[in-house]
């Protein structure tokens, strides 16, 4: 029988879309992961019976009967792909007229007709198929549908292409690769499981690509820029650690990559923010952040910034253990900020630590290919400042052919 995991986003009122997931019962944490993205998730344990489909859904029918919905499958067999397609076309509890998108992970079939569904208007339902690289025949069969010419009808200029296929190298053919790892929602501080980096990469990329499709076709839509700006306001203006933490998921993490400072999990990160970040005797009171560029995606923001301050405090997270020098600092900084639903889930913050040490007088730029504040200034003014000033051999190519 199917079970249900209700939408876990409670900060705003909306009618949560339904996601039908066909995956093993022991992998049900993926349902909770997607519930925190704002979906009501129906788990139909798979491998397992798909028929009689509506009977399997009967116990939860009243919770899903009026919602638009999508379906995600993991390792669907060739026979079950045919059965599922037929069941979805006949279902009363999840009617095909409200089906908005389909996602398949590593389906074990080469027949595209059982994976790509047509809607009532004779158009393909928006579909994403995630394949391991060795599924060459299925990829070849799907490829014509990934071009405008292969659809058999004309797309409006404003429409997204309905079929997308992604392949991932060096992941196993079976089981579907997301099932080889754990969803982020279950990861806790101090726990670690060995993980193939190719599986980790494929799972992360495919999750974001899937969420991009779900957000576009089903919603819900969250204002990630507003959420991020509220978070940084609590960090740098109000200097309020508890308020900062309330903008984040239950088990978030922050990693300042150059210094490996931050925290993993609620308690660790709360301690970091309260005692080693938000205090005015840690992050200098004249701190200024200037945004150079911002990229907003389905589940993350990439901010390119200039961080400016005077080194009047011991900045635990930026220059740990370095006593105040009174010197000005100007740093090019990039933040990768991820969200789950309407909460921040992690931050990866990057900057040039050599530039920091040069500006603090701790590294001699005359003996190494490093620079000080010029790094940040060129990021802000790329056309106004020369390139290759650290490259002694740059002059040797002057006047040579570039063909």
TrEMBL record:
Ranges in coiled-coil conformation: none
A biological process from GO: polyketide metabolic process
Matches recorded under PANTHER family: CARBOXYMETHYLENEBUTENOLIDASE-RELATED (PTHR38436:SF3), POLYKETIDE CYCLASE SNOAL-LIKE DOMAIN (PTHR38436)
Pfam families cross-referenced by the UniProt entry: SnoaL
Protein's recorded name: NTF2-like protein
Taxonomy of the source species: Eukaryota, Fungi, Dikarya, Basidiomycota, Agaricomycotina
Top-level taxon: Eukaryota
